[in-house]
């Protein structure tokens, strides 16, 4: 499976604390489906550790400084992630037609279409396999992952992946690098669609 070998080349086995052959064994029984990508479950490698493996314009991905709790973002009730270290995510879509929708608006629309949103780990996994899916003004949110605040209420942040402009705390050296950040659930952004899938296979 070429996608499995892609993860090997990127160094995912080492991040998972596994030997290469042991890692390959995790994905060998999965079908080779051209309409699906191989996702890394956060129990195998957390999203924050996967993000630096992203690459664009020769620059590694990064997580914004004010998202230190990225790995506390877990799947929302509508998203059923297979209890497998590696699994397939079918028929991915970037959600370009939902540019400038807020997460609060987009989630029920995705449900109406029979789709569920990416988790942040799935969004990163997709871009590890297909880096060219991250384009200027065509980036995406991963609203399948949410967390709670200190009061136990749903946190208003939603994770997203876009391209750094190299400004502010990002630093000039990170211009054009893949950026894992967050947006408010009620806010719209003209450059962010909503990554989604028709289903997951474990």
Structural account:
The structure is a single chain. This protein has 202 residues and is α+β, with helices and mostly antiparallel strands. The chain has one domain. It has six helices and 14 strands. A five-stranded mixed β-sheet has the order 4-11-10-8-12, covered by helices on one side. A three-stranded antiparallel β-sheet has the order 1-6-14. The longest helix is centred in the middle third of the chain and has 10 residues, at 103-112. It is globular, with a radius of gyration of 16 Å. 41% of the residues are buried. The mean pLDDT is 96.
Walk me through the topology:
Elements: H1 2-10, H2 12-16, H3 20-27, E1 36-40, H4 47-50, E2 55-56, E3 59-60, E4 62-63, E5 74-75, E6 86-90, H5 103-112, E7 116-117, H6 120-129, E8 139-141, E9 145-146, E10 157-163, E11 178-184, E12 192-194, E13 196-197, E14 199-201
Parallel strand pairs: 4-11, 8-12
Antiparallel strand pairs: 1-6, 2-3, 5-9, 6-14, 7-13, 8-10, 10-11
């Amino acid at each position: 499976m070429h996608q499995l070998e892609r993860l090997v080349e990127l160094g995912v086995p080492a991040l998972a604390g596994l030997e290469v052959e042991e890692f390959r064994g995790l994905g060998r029984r999965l079908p080779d489906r051209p309409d699906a990508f191989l996702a890394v479950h956060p129990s195998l490698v957390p999203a924050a550790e996967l993000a630096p493996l992203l690459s664009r314009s020769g620059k590694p991905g990064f997580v914004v400084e004010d998202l230190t709790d990225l790995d506390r973002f877990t799947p929302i009730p509508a998203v059923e992630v297979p209890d497998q270290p590696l699994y397939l995510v079918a028929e991915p879509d970037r959600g370009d037609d939902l540019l400038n929708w807020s997460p609060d608006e987009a989630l029920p629309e995705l449900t109406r279409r029979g789709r569920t949103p990416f988790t942040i780990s799935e969004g990163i996994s997709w871009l590890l396999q297909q880096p060219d899916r991250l384009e200027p003004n065509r980036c995406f949110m991963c609203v399948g992952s949410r967390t709670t605040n200190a009061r136990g209420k749903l946190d208003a942040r939603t994770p997203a992946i876009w391209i750094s402009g190299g400004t502010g705390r990002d630093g000039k050296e990170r211009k054009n690098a893949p950026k894992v950040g967050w947006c408010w659930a009620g806010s719209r952004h003209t450059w962010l669609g909503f990554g989604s899938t028709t289903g997951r296979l474990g």
